[in-house]
Design brief:
With 184 residues, this protein is mainly α. The protein has a domain at 20-115. It is 64% helix and 0% strand. Helix 1 crosses helix 4 (72-115). The termini are far apart. The relative contact order is 0.08.
Length: 184
């Protein structure tokens, strides 16, 4: 009878601890891949490609990072770097993650500063603002739609989105703000 050994006694492949430079390069590549939404790519890099952690370790660490304030991927980079090389590893992974997007945004800001008065650029940003507003409205509808069957939730949402008499506006448009936050 050829029984498979239990999982606890099965030999797992040895994982090598990443170097500080490997942490920087790995998270630098993640930072280049996208602005936000790179958590699935981070999992693939850490668990499948580089095998720095198991899937269970990654999931457990993600649970902790979701509990902490801040962006999940930022917290993950610090936690993974810290796991392998302490503070220097955390700094290396964090710097790798944010250096490229920061440089890109600063570069785009410098370019925008040069061309911001061009009417074509102004129209382009007006179009981008309209598109962003449409996406925001679409997401709000998707979030609110299930609440239509819950009257108490509709009342609470209505109160939160009602105009506040304590709000200050700099335009003639009505002030829409969260009523509870107006008392802060």
């Amino acid at each position: 009878m050829n029984a498979m050994p239990p999982l606890a006694t099965a030999t797992l492949p040895q994982r090598e601890s990443p170097t500080v430079a490997a942490l920087f390069i790995g998270f630098f590549n993640l930072g280049l891949m996208g602005f936000g939404g790179v958590l699935p790519l981070a999992r693939r890099m850490v668990v499948e490609d580089r095998r720095w952690m198991t899937g269970d370790e990654f999931t457990e660490l993600l649970g902790l990072c979701q509990f902490l304030p801040g962006g999940n991927i930022i917290n993950m980079s610090v936690a993974i770097g810290s796991k392998f090389h302490g503070a220097i590893g955390a700094f290396s992974a964090l710097l790798g993650l944010i250096v490229a997007p920061t440089a890109i945004v600063i570069g785009l800001g410098v370019i925008y500063d040069q061309f911001s008065s061009d009417p074509r650029v102004e129209h382009m940003f007006a179009g981008l603002a309209a598109a962003a507003a449409g996406l925001l409205l679409s997401m709000a509808i998707k979030i609110v739609w299930p609440l239509r069957k819950r009257p108490v939730a509709v009342v609470i949402a209505s109160i939160c989105l009602s105009p506040s008499p304590f709000s200050v506006c700099r335009s003639s448009a009505p002030c829409w703000c969260s009523a509870p936050s107006a008392f802060w």
